[in-house]
Every structure is written in structure tokens, then in C-alpha cells.
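Subject: Sanity check before I submit

Could someone independently write out the C-alpha cells for this chain? I want to compare against mine line by line before I put it in a report. The sequence has 277 residues.
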Amino acid sequence: MRRPAPRLLYVTDLAYRAAGRRYADEDLELSARLRAEFPLALCDPRDAAGLLDGFDAVLVRNSGPVLHYRAAYAAFRAEALRLGLPVHNPLSGRADMAGKGYLLELTRAGLPVIPSYAGDTPLAELPVCEAYIVKPVDGADSVGLARLDAVALAARTPDARTLVQPYVPFRHEVSFTFLDGEFRYALYAPDPERRWELVPYRPSAADLAFARRFVEWNDLPYGIQRVDACRTREGELLLVELEDHNPYLSLGLLDGRTRATFERALVASLRGAAARG
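---
Independent answer below. Compare away.
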């Protein structure tokens, strides 16, 4: 007798608006594809904790920055762990899922990342440069991000809940998407002034080795990870962020074959996660 398909709770904020991207469109289309494979319901991240008991697995998708619902997210995590419910991605993520503090760890370890410092670091201990980027530790989608010169940075109140990074001029940004540790596709923005206008990118072996280094560091047993990087004017790739919580997938920019292959792999990943749970 065939085992029934796991009941899937798809967590998304359909009302969330991000600059240059239509998150709701992606989630409506992807959830429709998954509904062919699973009994499925969509819910807002603020409601997820109270609904978990009726499902066999959870898929967290475009649910917006956690800073908009910190208490609800903490309740969701606690309840999912209490129930032993498989969450896609697993809640053991060490990167953006836990806030951007990991960028401090990677900087100290000497990995190829944009140098990152705690928001209460004295100006005298920061690299000297023309401008600095300040961003919330639990931010996303550039929410709360500011570009400041040294005078403005020195005048702000030190805040350990933020990160400070020297501004790095770059040629372009590139994103590598992995599923269950396997590279699936890459996209890049040729014009740094139009960062949401992405096109397909064919990575070199060195590019993939760079991206895999961070995926392996995160050591997730399954799930989707997007490695976002910038290429400096000197040609070096530096990590911008490792998105392991709710990475936007830009599925609408993929060719039909790449998208279908990714969606089939996601179905298999969700089935595997539910079976292990």
C-alpha cells in the first residue's frame, strides 16, 4: 500500500513587498506546483506556531525579514522543535537563519567575505575607507541598511544589534543556489546600479569552489541555500550573505528545463525530510 503524501505547511507572507521582486508571485506559482504532490496549506509566519500540529512538514519560503515578527518566529522555532517537526530548511542553519552575526565569525576566520564588524566597534578599529555599510543583524532585503561616511558613522549611537562593513566597490553581484548541497543554478546582475535585474550566469570551477566552501561550512542535512557574492574590481569573489532561511529563488528568471529540474528536486527533498522526521 502506497504511503500517503505528507501534509505540508507552506509559510509565506503574501503581502510582503520587496524592492524589485514579486515574492507573492513566486510563492503562488511554487505552491501550486507543490500542491500536485502534497496536501498543502499556506500560512503567514505570524500564524505558523499555532498551526504546526496539523502537518507533517514545513516549508519556509518568502516570509520576509524576521525583525518584523521576532516573537512569532521564536514561538515557531520552539514549537517546531517541541513537536520534532521537519522544517525545510532545518532550524540548525548557522547563517542568515540565526542572524548575520556569522559574518563576524567568517571575517575572524579569514574567509573570503566582505569584512564585517560588530556595530559597537570603535571607528578607530575599523578599516579606513570612504564609506561604511550599516545593517541590522536580523535584517534582510536591505531593510534598515544605511551607507554612511566616517563622520556620520562616528556620530551614530553604537549598537551591537547591527553590523558595520567597509563599502566595497564591485563589478557585479552573483548568486549561487544549492539544494541539498548540490549546485542548481546561478544568476547575476551585470550592472551594480540595477542589482535586481538578474540574468543566468555560468560559473567557473573556481566560482563553484568558492560557493561550496560556505555551503559546506553551514553543514545543513538538506534544504535550499543561496550564496550571494560580489566580484571586486580586482576580480575576487567575496561573500555578501549566505541565505539559509527564506532565500528568494528568482524562479521566473530560469529557463523551463532548469526550473522543472529544480522543482522536481525540491519535491524529492521535501519527501525525504518528511520521511526522516
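---
OP: Matches mine. For the report I'm noting this point. The chain is about 25% helix and 25% strand.
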